[in-house]
Design brief:
Blueprint: H1 3-18, E1 22-31, E2 34-44, E3 49-53, H2 60-68, E4 75-80, E5 83-84, H3 90-95, E6 98-100, H4 113-123, H5 139-150, H6 166-177, E7 184-188, H7 196-207, E8 214-218, H8 222-228, E9 231-236, E10 239-244, H9 246-251, H10 253-259
Helix pairs in contact: 4-5, 4-6
């Protein structure tokens, strides 16, 4: 291999290692005359756990939709691990290690927990179009079993999803998002509708994710969000108006005014 080729590879590896996991610059999303997002600039480091907070209508889910490719931004750029994915469709972003959960569970209720996770693993593998029944030593099946255990569903792995509690279904969604060893995950209100006990379990699951796996969590429950996040971004009316450490955000009077109904001028 030539010295030029070797240097080129080294440069690419070096730049990939220093790139942010996610970087948005000037992202705006318009729906007609309505600006759902306005000039959003946001950087998240590899392995970082970030919370995005804000009241209903702040633009949080629209932000996720732009990051995942469900919506294309009206203007601005989105980079994933240094690569410009602004105009990439959702499946191309998934191939690059991005995953997401949704506010409304999207599961196969007639199948077992393990079958749901196995199908998710198949869906992001090269053998996803295979119709051969898996063997007991199938690598994807083993991975599905590991993910089922990671989200605390081992005891109900053979139970149909339809009879799971709501909290267990939310845990299962996390397992599906973790299929294929993603590099970055977007969690959209995973604590919504959970009991206090289920929320504590959710915190444990998110805290114990592999250290290299960064994520952004959208959450109305500040207690959950601030316990799992290293840094917090506050949104209001489609804009970012505050960023900081969890303790800084929790003590901020403007943040308290938003969550206690005082609003933000």
């Amino acid at each position: 291999m030539s010295a030029v080729a070797t240097r080129s590879i080294a440069e690419r590896l070096s730049s990939a290692g220093t790139a942010n996991a996610l970087e948005l610059r000037g992202v705006t999303k318009l729906f007609g005359a309505l600006a759902a997002l306005t000039d959003i600039s946001l950087s998240v480091s590899p392995g970082e756990r970030r919370a995005v907070l804000g009241s209903n209508g702040a633009g949080k889910t629209t932000l996720f939709n732009c990051i995942t490719g469900d919506f294309l931004p009206t203007s601005g750029t989105i980079r994933l691990f240094g690569e410009d994915v602004t105009r990439f469709p959702a499946h191309e972003r998934i191939r690059r290690g991005l995953r997401r959960t949704y506010q409304i569970s999207q599961l196969f209720p007639g199948l077992s927990v393990l079958d749901n996770v196995y199908l998710a693993c198949c869906g992001v593998s090269r053998s996803r179009f295979s119709f051969i029944r898996p063997r007991r030593d199938d690598a994807l099946l083993a991975t599905a079993e590991q993910l089922t255990e990671a989200v605390h569903l081992r005891d109900v792995r053979d139970i149909k999803v339809a009879v799971l509690s709501y909290g267990q279904q939310r845990q299962l969604e996390i397992a599906l998002a973790l299929a294929g060893a993603p590099r970055f995950v977007l969690f959209d209100e995973p604590a919504a509708g959970l009991s206090p006990t289920e929320r504590r379990e959710l915190v444990e699951i998110l805290t114990n994710l592999p250290g290299h796996m960064g994520f952004i969590i959208i959450e109305h429950d500040m207690d959950v969000a601030l316990r799992v996040a290293e840094r917090v971004t506050m949104m209001h009316n489609g804009r970012i108006f505050k960023e900081g450490l969890p303790e800084e955000i929790e003590a901020d009077p403007e943040v308290q005014a938003l969550y206690l109904g005082g609003g933000h001028a």
